[in-house]
Amino acid sequence: MTILSEGIKRFFSSERAKKIIVICGLAAMILILLSSFFGRSGSNADSQDKIYSIDYEELEKKLEDKLCGLILQIEGAGKVSVMITVDRTELILYEKNSKTNGSENDHSEETEVALSGNSKEPLEIGKIMPTIRSAAIVCEGAKDPIIRERVTNVASKALNIGISKVYVAY
């Protein structure tokens, strides 16, 4: 063990070893600096923004297209047109810090939004996605009450809304 430790001490005391350590340290700092410029460019940052930004018209359109495809599979449904309305925008939930002030008789409480790390942005803990308000469906086959009932049930189950929120016409 002593031979190894003496060899390590001799290596680190030499001028060549000091130069190697300094060069490695500088290279590491340059890589860290370059990664801050190039590491989050384009795809990663943009994809995270896309996760949290919702285009409600696009959401409604996608749901309408999917529901239209389902209804077209019902025998006798015929030509179909669907309109879906979204009830509210998404809600973002933030972490809160609470402080109790005063004595036992005075129960005042201060609540403030918690901030994430060193930034001044609020700490997000979750999101509540928009809910579907209603669906209006125009369907050629809805003249038949059995087809109308099938279309209503498919829309109700697919959108997870009550039958009273689905209107089917012909």
Can you put this structure into words, describing what you see?
The chain is of the alpha+beta class. 46% of the residues lie in helices and 24% in strands. The protein has five helices and seven strands. The chain starts with a helix and ends with a strand.
List keywords for this structure.
alpha+beta, 3-stranded mixed beta sheet, GMP Synthetase, Chain A, domain 3, two-stranded antiparallel ribbon, 170 residues, 46% helix
Rounded average pLDDT: 77
Q: Do you know the CATH architecture of the largest domain? A: 2-Layer Sandwich
Please provide the count of β strands: 7
Distance between the termini: 91 Å
CATH homologous superfamily title of the largest domain: ANL, C-terminal domain
CATH topology of the largest domain: GMP Synthetase, Chain A, domain 3
The share of residues in extended strands comes to 15-25%
Number of domain modules:
3
* N-to-C series of helices and strands: HHHHEEEEEEHE
Using only C-alpha atoms, the radius of gyration works out to 31 Å
Percent helix? 40-55%
CATH class of the largest domain: Alpha Beta
Assembly form of the protein: single chain
Helix and strand composition category: alpha+beta
**Unreliable stretches:** 40-53
